[in-house]
Amino acid sequence: MPRWKGATYSDELAQGANATVVRIDYKLSFEYPYPIPVHTVLAGYDWIMKNLAGGNVTSKGLTTPTELSNIGVCGELIGGSLAAMLALTECHEDRKGITAAAVGNPLVDWTGLFPHESDHTSDSQEAGLVRRTHGDLSFLPDPYKGGLPRRLLPHQKTISFNTPSSDPLPIGGLLQIRRHYFRKPESYFDPFASPLLFFRTPSAELPRESPANYTIIDQSEKGGDSAESVNKRRSPRKYPPTDSNLLLPWMRVDVGKENVLQDQGLEFVELMRRSFRRSRVERSASAQKEVHRTFEVVEREGMGLWDAKDALEIGQWFGEVLRKR
């Protein structure tokens, strides 16, 4: 769970799953842009595997082999993106790894963010979004608090996206966040930053760079055309590769009905389902052991962000799937 959610969420998750919960404090700020968060999460996972996941227990100088633990991973928004990345790359069948993942409104395709005609977010509003999304409901971890330039700190009221009166998250604000978290465009075209790209090609061409900034869309050159004019045709990718030992984990994706990331979450689940159906056919043809997995969607009202009650229920879901063989 994200650090700003507090210990209560981790406690509820642990209680529901009847398991140990480790919270990885991934770094994400202007000083620590991508791919640093990815490296931090991978390092945290390696530490867990070495120190907590079992395999060997040493007591009084004697080392006793033990069964490795089943591991689940959980995250929301950008944390959901990192959790999805970890789940898809550490789901080894020939050794214990991640066998289940639950992600909430994950931002799994940074390349798929386009300005919409209905999104009239001004620069000052985008800056306000970056400020508002910091804190207990934010995309942004605590280190971001001290890293905002002065021009991104307008005096605006903090808005809780869980309240019924809150407005949908504007695409313009996400584009603002993307510009500050990725030093180069190719960084968010990497599947480790945009896990949806493990399963298909990007939603846009790699943008041109300029010394001051970069963008996928230059409306002045496009004559004000909508984002559809630059939306790239997407092609499927085969994942996991046939010669790998990866087996997709049990997956649960929670999406908010009014969240602009809903479509990404729904597509993510559908692509995993297609991938698993293909792998089952290949396993059957090669007489490999049949396996079962589910890839489910939980649709929530409004923005669909998690609270402590949701953490308990998600923990119970982990408790069920992590004990399946």
Structural key phrases:
single chain; 325 residues; alpha/beta; four-stranded parallel β-sheet; two-stranded antiparallel sheet; 9 helices; 33% helix; 10% strand
Helices and strands, with pairings:
Layout: H1 7-17, H2 36-51, E1 56-59, E2 62-65, E3 71-76, H3 78-89, E4 98-104, H4 123-132, H5 171-181, H6 185-188, H7 219-222, E5 250-256, H8 262-285, E6 295-300, H9 308-321
Parallel strand pairs: 3-4, 4-5, 5-6
Antiparallel strand pairs: 1-2
Helix pairs in contact: 1-9, 2-3, 4-5
Structural summary, described in words:
The chain contains 9 helices and 6 strands; from the N terminus they run H-H-E-E-E-H-E-H-H-H-H-E-H-E-H. The relative contact order is 0.18. The protein is an alpha/beta fold and 325 residues long. Strand 3, helix 3 and strand 4 form a beta-alpha-beta unit. Helix 2 crosses helix 3 and helix 4 packs across helix 5. It is 33% helix and 10% strand. About 22% of the residues have low confidence. The protein has a 4-stranded parallel sheet with strand order 3-4-5-6, sandwiched between helices. The radius of gyration is 20 Å and the shape is globular. The protein starts with 6 loop residues before the first helix and ends with a helix.
